[in-house]
Structures are given as structure tokens and as C-alpha cells.
Amino acid sequence: MSDKNSISSEMHDLVIIGAGPAGLTAGIYAARDKHDVVLLEKLSPGGQVLTTDFVENYPGFPEGISGFELMDRIKKQAERFGLTIISHEVQEVDWGGSIKQLSLDSGLMNARSIIVATGAKPRKVGIEGEDLLTGKGVSYCGTCDGPFYREAVVAVIGGGDTAVQEAVFLTRFARKVYVIHRRDELRATKIIQERAFANEKVEFIWDTVPISIEGETGVERLRLRNVKNREESTLNVEGVFVLVGTRPVTEFLDGAVALDEQGFIKVDRRQETSVPGIFAAGDVTSENPRQIATAVGEGTSAALYAEKYLEAQEG
Ligand code: NAP
After folding, report:
1. DSSP label at 245?
2. Dihedral sign of CA atoms 104, 110, 111, 112 in order
3. 144 an active-site residue?
4. Model confidence over 278-299: pLDDT tens digits?
5. Residue 5 pLDDT exceeds 80
6. How many independent structural domains does the chain possess?
7. Closest CA to ligand 1's atom 13
8. Which residue, of 185, 216, 242, is where some domain finishes?
């Protein structure tokens, strides 16, 4: 794999956008089959998995594996087959004709087929103080920022796998972790719930939503509202981890392919979008269980069906 920063003006058979599990897996298949393939990644390869402390449900690793190590291994496997990864951000697309055009941050690139594997980003909770205090106590990644909160009291917002798993992770550093959830039942899977319930540093605040995050130069407190009795309260915390799900990275598509009402890309069983020759895989796709294993599977299908598409085009 070469981290080239110069853009080729040549046409590519396949351009993959995004280097998370879906994009890298598509890259492994396409590069191994000796296709003219380029993978574009805005930052560095790895995707959201890099923000996961420990992965224990990806097959083949009975003892579990860190998110960083798993992605490093997948990247090395792509390197072995000579996948070219170029660090550029796709800003606009023109996919009207049979040749697909990509406007990058420093030039144009053309392709016969595309796989969009841009993944998803953390969602904001949308309350007062959130933007102002982001990076000053408000975080969207426990695995990344947890070590800054040694002996601190912190709050996690959300009740899904990410929130509950990260809450347990944060107890390695924080002396107390409150989990604020808007219902009285968690969405997280049972095994993750049980670990949190068994951890005496974790305390759940049920049926409650945050209404503002307050502090002068950093987070000092969280204002809360009980959704059942409407009572408001204040919780003194030094950090707030907003872990309320994800939103797809599809802004750059600007209507080029059909999206669902939340902005995720609609695909058929071959991972093909509403535009022939444009495929999508991983967390960016609609009705996706958002697992590493499903992203890998979708990346595989997208690469194989992109190949069939190219063969059909060649006649
Ligand atoms: P998620 O499953 O969508 O959960 C989001 C949580 O945030 C829900 O509990 C939701 O409450 C809450 N929430 C959403 N909007 C809110 C708001 N405005 N105010 C307050 N709370 C709000 O997202 P996720 O936990 O990031 O997980 C995403 C996907 O990744 C899931 O498919 C999950 O299974 C997967 N994942 C798997 C693992 C693992 O297998 N170890 C780890 C991490 C993630 P409600 O429950 O009331 O809707």
C-alpha cells in the first residue's frame, strides 16, 4: 500500500471511498484480483473501530482483540495485495454518466465503478453547551478520551451498546460513571448490560434526558430532566460522553444516490445503490446492523458485484 498524495488523472476501474472494515475488505478483494483499484481515505485508515477499546464478537479471535489491532491487521492484509490508499477527501461527485467523476480536495478523479464505504460519525444530542464545551469535557469517544478523566466523575448519555460498553471502559479511569438513559430499559445487548450492572462504579439514571451542559472553561455540571415527572436536577460532572448513536457520512453525495429518511444509502442485495455501478457497504448503508462482521461481509459483496458490473460493461 502506498500513501500517495498525488492524484492520478487516469481513469480507475474501481474507486473505494473510506478505509474502515468495509472499504478495506473491498480493497483486499479487488487488489487481490489484480483490479485497477484505488482507495480514498480522508484521514488515516481504520474507521470507527479505532475508537473501540475491545472487540470480542468478531469471528476468529476467541480471546477478543483491540479495535486498533484488528484494523491494523486488516490494513496489513490489504498492503500485502498492493492496495493503493490515497489520502484525499471526496468533496463532490458527478455520477450522472457511465464515467463517474469525483471532485477531491485537490483535483478530479474518474472511475468506472465506485464503492462508498464512508461509515458513520457520532451523533450529537443537540443540547445547550454541547458545541461550546466539545473538547473541553464533552467527548464522543470514551476509548479516546477516557485517560483524561482519572479519578473524575463523568456522565455517559445513551443506552445502546456503545454507551454501556464505554461506560464500563471509563471505570478504568473515572471514580464514578453515571449513565443517563431516556428510558427505563437499555437497548444494549444483555452481556454488555450485565457487565455494567455488576460494576459498582457505574450508576444508571433512568427515564432522564440531559437538557444542558454547563461550565465556565470546562464541563462542571449537567442539567437533567426526568421524562416521567418532568423534574429537573443538576449533576456535578467533569466529563460528558455523548454516545447516542451515529449519523451516516453522506453529505458529499448531495442527492447522487437514493438515501433513506435518516440519510443512510439504500442498497440492494448486491450492495448496489440506485445508480448502476455505484455500490455502498458498511455503516453508511440503510438497515445495517452496524457490526464489524457485517461491514466486512458487505465490503466483500460490493467488491465482487463491482467486478461483475465491470465485466458486463466490457461486454
Ligand atoms: P444505538 O444502538 O442507536 O443506541 C443509541 C442510544 O442512544 C439508545 O439507547 C438511544 O435511546 C439513545 N439516544 C438516541 N438519541 C438520543 C437523544 N437525543 N437523547 C438521549 N438518548 C438518545 O447506537 P450505538 O450504541 O452507537 O450502537 C450502534 C450500532 O453499533 C448498534 O447496532 C450496536 O449494536 C453496534 N455496536 C455493537 C457493539 C458490540 O457488539 N460490542 C459495540 C458498539 C456498537 P433509545 O434506546 O431510547 O432509543
Report:
1. -
2. positive
3. yes
4. 999 999 999 888 899 999 999 9
5. no
6. 2
7. 244
8. 242
- For ligand 1, residues with CB inside 6 Å are 57, 125, 157-163, 165, 182-183, 187, 209, 244-246, 289-290
Are both 254 and 221 inside the same structural domain?
A: no
Tell me which of 192, 290, 298 to substitute to probe ligand 1's pocket, judged by most ligand atoms within 8 Å of the beta carbon: 290
Domain match, 131 and 151 both:
yes
Dump pLDDT digits (tens) for 76-96: 999 999 999 999 999 999 988
What is the atom index within ligand 1 of the atom nearest the CA of 161?
25
Report the C-alpha gap between 196 and 11 in whole angstroms.
51
Letter string b/e over residues 30-67, b meaning 16 or more CB atoms within 10 A of that residue's CB: bbbeebbbbbbbbeebbbbbbbbbebeebeeeeeebbb
Closest atom of ligand 1 to CA, residue 181: 21
Which member of 94, 144, 184, 254 is catalytic? 144
What totals of helices (H) and strands (E) does the chain contain, helices first? 6, 20
8-state DSSP, 66: E
Nine-digit cell at 216? 465556565
Residue 53 annotated to the active site: no
The residue behind cell 474502515 is 20
Assign residue 48 the CATH number of its domain. Answer: 3.50.50.60
Determine the residue type at 3. D
Q: How remote is the CA of residue 161 from the centroid of ligand 1, in Å?
A: 6
Q: Are 170 and 142 in contact (CB under 8 A)?
A: yes
DSSP 130-190: TTTTBTTTEES-HHHHGGGGTT-EEEEE--SHHHHHHHHHHTTT-SEEEEE-SSSS--S-H
What is the DSSP pairing of strand 90-94 with strand 100-104? antiparallel
C-alpha to C-alpha distance for 247 and 174, rounded to whole angstroms: 28
Domain that holds residue 105: 2-121+246-314
Has this prediction a pTM greater than 0.70?
yes
